[in-house]
């Protein structure tokens, strides 16, 4: 079982967006679990209104979503952790150094040079267009991320 965890700051904008989009990518696959968390999340918050609206327009439902704080249990369960920014990677490395071997920047494997290795912009507190830009970047990054997991998982299993 591949357990993919997306991490941002408050777990209301970027990571729930990535979670929903990635879950859609692997919806036909029983060998994936997908979740998200935040390094500074207030537990129990819904996804932001723009995140929810944009995903609803794509047929993805976040109505039952609740934010959660990143913790050791979530990291123990995860086989792959994808951070939205280098700041999030540093926060994970600082607090949970035993897990750094499975933490990557979400854009690390992107096929397109203009997004590869870049932080995913935080739309929090901005208008809908900022959320649309974040969503567009994630839609470009996630297929390559899935390909990376598939390629490395087979090697690990072989």
Can you give a write-up of this model?
The protein is an alpha/beta fold and 158 residues long. It contains five helices and four strands. The chain has helices spanning 14-25, 49-57, 72-77, 86-95, 128-157, and strands at residues 2-8, 32-38, 80-83, 103-105. A four-stranded parallel β-sheet has the order 2-1-3-4. Strand 1 (2-8), helix 1 and strand 2 form a beta-alpha-beta unit. It is globular, with a radius of gyration of 14 Å. The model has no long low-confidence stretch (mean pLDDT 95).
Radius of gyration: 14 Å
Average pLDDT for all residues? 95
Strand order of the largest sheet: 2-1-3-4
Q: How many helical stretches?
A: 5
Straight-line N-to-C gap: 15 Å
The oligomeric status of these chains comes to single chain
Biggest β-sheet strands, sense, barrel: 4 strands, parallel
Tell how many strands the DSSP assignment holds: 4
**Helix content percent band:** 40-55%
Task: Write a short abstract of this structure.
The chain is an alpha/beta fold and 158 residues long.
Output the keywords.
alpha/beta; four-stranded parallel sheet
How are the secondary structure elements laid out?
Elements: E1 2-8, H1 14-25, E2 32-38, H2 49-57, H3 72-77, E3 80-83, H4 86-95, E4 103-105, H5 128-157
Parallel strand pairs: 1-2, 1-3, 3-4
Helix pairs in contact: 1-5
């Amino acid at each position: 079982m591949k357990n993919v965890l997306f991490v941002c700051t408050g777990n209301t904008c970027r990571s729930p967006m990535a979670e929903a989009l990635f879950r859609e990518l692997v919806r036909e696959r029983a060998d994936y679990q997908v979740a998200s968390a935040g390094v500074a999340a207030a537990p129990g918050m819904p996804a932001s209104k723009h995140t929810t609206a944009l995903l609803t327009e794509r047929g993805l439902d976040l109505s039952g979503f609740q934010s959660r704080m990143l913790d050791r249990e979530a990291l123990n369960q995860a086989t792959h952790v994808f951070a939205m920014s280098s700041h999030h990677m540093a926060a994970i490395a600082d607090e949970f150094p035993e897990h750094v071997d499975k933490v990557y920047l979400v854009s690390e494997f992107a096929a397109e040079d203009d997004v590869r290795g870049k932080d995913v912009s935080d739309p929090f507190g901005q208008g809908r267009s900022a959320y649309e830009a974040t969503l567009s970047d994630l839609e470009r990054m996630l297929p390559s991320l899935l390909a990376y997991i598939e390629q490395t998982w087979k090697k690990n299993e072989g």
